[in-house]
Amino acid sequence: MNLFLIFKQSIIALKTNKLRSFFSILGIVIGVAAVVIILSLGQGLKGLVTSEVEAFGPNLLDIAIKIPGADQISTAMSMVQGVKITTLKHKDVEALKDKERFPYIESVAGQAIGQEWVAYGGEEKQVLIYGTSADYPQVMKIAKIANGRFFNQSEDDGLAKVVVLGSGLVEKFFDGKDFLGKKIKIKGQNFKIVGSFEPQGGVIMGGIDINDFLYIPLQTALKQILGINYLSEIVLVIKDQSYSTQAIEEISRMLRKNHNIKDPAKDDFQITTMTEILDQVNQVSVILNLLLGFLAAISLLVGGIGIMNIMLVSVSERTKEIGLRKSLGATKKAILWQFLIEGLVITCLGGFIGIIIGIVISLITSFVVRAQGLSGWPITISWLAIISAFLVSMAIGLIFGIYPARKASKLSPIEAMRKE
Hints:
Layout: H1 3-16, H2 18-54, E1 60-65, H3 72-80, H4 90-96, E2 105-120, E3 123-132, H5 136-139, E4 145-148, H6 153-157, E5 162-165, H7 167-174, E6 183-186, E7 189-197, E8 204-205, E9 208-209, E10 214-217, H8 218-226, E11 233-238, H9 244-258, E12 269-273, H10 274-317, H11 319-327, H12 332-371, H13 383-409, H14 413-419
Parallel strand pairs: 3-10, 5-7
Antiparallel strand pairs: 1-11, 1-12, 2-3, 2-6, 2-11, 4-7, 5-10, 6-7, 8-9
Helix pairs in contact: 1-12, 2-10, 2-12, 2-13, 10-12, 10-13, 11-14, 12-13
């Protein structure tokens, strides 16, 4: 049995039915390209989120509100439905600033977020108001002042009407022109602009660009703008990661005392370290990639079924050819290999083209995403996806090509000639 000759005959047969071969290859191309694109973009998204989280530094602790007895997912779902948790207070921030009690805490920032109308000149926009403490730039390492300054502790304590603009608002309201010292109206009240932030990587939070935030002193936000007496979150920085366990235990005790909580199972807060957040990101990324990879693999499966159907049609149409070849001495093995090689050629060619298209689209998408301001998005290709997609396409050629090939090899030459 001459495999090279059989391969040559398979190519000739595929060329004879160009349109049929094209659509068979197209199904595999789409499936393989989808796998490469989806997994590469999933890897890019993971890299972006990881880089953004790591930018905050390993010594960051996040104190988030939580429904007593519920996990964070249930809490998030409840908050989307309108449930408000009002137990985290400004006094908790002040307690964390006690150097005698918490000597390992370097800086603390509470936060309260709301949406209000902001106006300058004849322009008015609805903007996210970010009320925060004076320590915010020391806590959030990615927040760097571009112009002017950040507000200080005395301004926070004195309910000063000062504001720091996100870089996006500088462009929207002032179009790059001088803005320091000018007044901007928030909820009808005049606030003096004292500074602005550098672009923060175009970070997207729930579909909102963090560069479009407007920052005011926490107590001013609570008492004069938002009209609330509770916080949504507290973020703090400790001297070293080695203090993490001690910090979590001691801060938890303090918060339970302040919130009158006797049973730790009923905590209305959750303290998370950056390491835990990165672990959660990795877990979500793995699950997401598996899910998306599975969905993309379905298109490969559909392509494989299409190949089997077309090969069965090909066997039915070529019964005379098969009978003639057998009558001239072709063995069952030679016939089987011819049809099997035809299936492999279709899937391997489709797999190769699909990989090229997948790589090109993935790279273009990465460049487009980075051009939109997400500079932390890595330009990456999932080589695991490429290898896996190609091997799967070959396996599909074998699996879905075996049945038609066996059917062709078992045809009796006399019956085949008679049928035709």
